[in-house]
Design goal:
Strand order of the largest sheet: 1-2
Helix content: 55-70%
Strand content: under 5%
Structural class: mainly alpha
Distance between the termini: 38 Å
Number of strands: 2
Number of domains: 1
Shape: globular
Largest sheet: 2 strands, antiparallel
Number of helices: 8
């Protein structure tokens, strides 16, 4: 093993070290929270740990009218986005709110970097799943972090929209698992493949579980979820101003919850 090999693997080593430190810190903070609150390990205390300022979707202002409007809006978004046309030969980027050059580019970079990062461990299935997986998990983790900050819900619309774009692209990609009509690129972001030349990530994600025959249905579910998050991106803006108009309330000490 020479010095150049070590230097080449240094980013992965640093990344794994930071990841392990974050995981340990969260577990330690969670342990302290459960230890010093009443009822110990309960759903209520778990929820309070991740959302101490009650800023998440479970604390949004709901009533009958709002719920009906939210459901109608989700159905409307599904009508627009979910019944997508048959994937055109070689075409991936679609001219829409959820998939365009501005949303696709950062997601693409995260997608391909994740492949390169996790391939170092030699976990073939997770290397395939890490592309769309990390695409979606990254904004989810950032969202959980913002809930730990008073007023962090101001970022919820942006993060919900980000999650929606990742789910929609994953659904579009999953639908092509068997058909292979999309032009693909390697994780080196240089090598390109014509449609049908290689199989996409979702082929290798679904094949071990015998789910290739349901690829289009899985893609459909992901696209519906994307519409749900897009609806909540809009609803979170409305809810933010509703909460802003309310008188401030005294908060209990939640110092033990902090990461």
């Amino acid at each position: 093993m020479n010095i150049y090999y070590i230097l080449a693997k240094l980013p992965q080593v640093i990344g794994v070290t930071v990841l392990l430190c974050v995981i340990f810190r969260v577990i330690w903070a969670f342990y302290r929270h459960i230890r010093y609150v009443e009822d110990g390990f309960s759903i209520k205390n778990i929820h309070e740990f991740f959302d101490p300022y009650k800023q998440g979707v479970f604390y949004y202002k709901y009533n009958f009218t709002i719920v009906i409007c939210l459901i109608a809006f989700i159905i409307f978004l599904c009508y627009i986005y979910v019944p997508h046309e048959t994937i055109e030969e070689g075409k991936y980027i679609k001219d829409s709110l959820l998939t365009n050059i501005f949303t696709w580019t950062p997601n693409y970079l995260i997608h391909e970097f994740s492949h390169r990062f996790w391939a170092w461990f030699g976990w073939d299935w997770w290397t395939s799943a890490s592309g769309n997986g990390m695409e979606t998990l990254l904004p989810c983790f950032i969202y959980l972090f913002t809930l730990q900050i008073r007023g962090g819900n101001i970022l919820s619309p942006f993060l919900f929209f980000w999650i929606a774009t990742t789910l929609y692209e994953a659904g579009f990609y999953a639908s092509d698992a068997v058909a292979s009509k999309l032009a693909l690129t390697s994780s080196d972001m240089v090598t390109n493949f014509e449609p049908g030349k290689v199989k996409g990530d979702w082929y290798y994600i679904l094949k071990p579980f015998g789910l290739l025959d349901y690829a289009e249905e899985i893609g459909l579910i992901l696209e519906v979820l994307a519409c749900v998050f897009l609806a909540y991106a809009v609803f979170s803006i409305i809810n933010y101003f509703i909460r802003l108009a309310e008188p401030p309330q005294m908060e209990k000490d939640i110092s033990l919850n902090k990461f």
